[in-house]
Amino acid sequence: MNKPIHRALRAAFSLRAVKVVALLSVLAVSGCSSTSQVEGDPKDPLETVNRASWTFTWDYADKYVLKPAATAYTEYTPTFLRSGLHNMALNLNEPSSFINNLLQGKFSNAGKSAGRFVLNSTVGLLGFFDPASDFGWTGTQEEFGEVMAVYGVGDGPYIVIPALGPSSVRDEVGDFVDRYYWPLAVIDFWPNLVRSAIIGLEARASLTQQEQLINNAIDPYEFVKQAYFQNMEYRVYDGKPPIKVDEEEEAELDAYLDELDEE
What we know:
Elements: H1 2-11, H2 16-32, H3 47-76, H4 79-91, H5 94-103, H6 107-122, H7 144-150, E1 158-161, E2 165-168, H8 169-178, H9 189-206, H10 211-216, H11 220-236, H12 247-262
Helix pairs in contact: 1-9, 1-11, 3-9, 4-9, 5-6, 7-8
């Protein structure tokens, strides 16, 4: 559930220029309001601004633009065409995934990414079909943000980018680097616009079954934020995040059990 939420809320129409302008706007506003910030979640120092951005994103941009667009796209586009276009859009990420896997020492996954790109780009007609999956080459795509995390770079401040959703400083830097890998770096604006739109529409469509969970949450903003960080940790550790132990809670539990034993 976490992965679709993260993808859907931040992938829709994720054009470089739009994201940069939006990010600068958030940081500029936060600078003006920094004196009124209330100390809270250390990962979310911009909470006041982020909450306003979240309200705009979920209650207005998504409700009146993103959700209707995704609904129309899924209802009126033939399934085979949707699948093929989505495959083509994701296939262009395989070269960056290949390098990011190498940087993490994941040589087997790097080989799968390279194999997927070559096979799907040729036999699969520029990625429209996915014959690589028939060979078991279904490795997950890796982002540069995950590479930085593996080498000890923290998430940085949590950011809700207007109309695009949850992110973090590390994630944004990672996305910026990923766009300079071939072939994304040589794709013209309009083809990249179409590619980003397809990924965004599919991501928003995948959120349909989970959006009620967001609406029913006591604090939807906090719910999505926690889902975002859990998903990031899940991806960094390839689905096997370490078990975290709260030492204070453990100490309190031990003390309580000791009291019971004494009684």
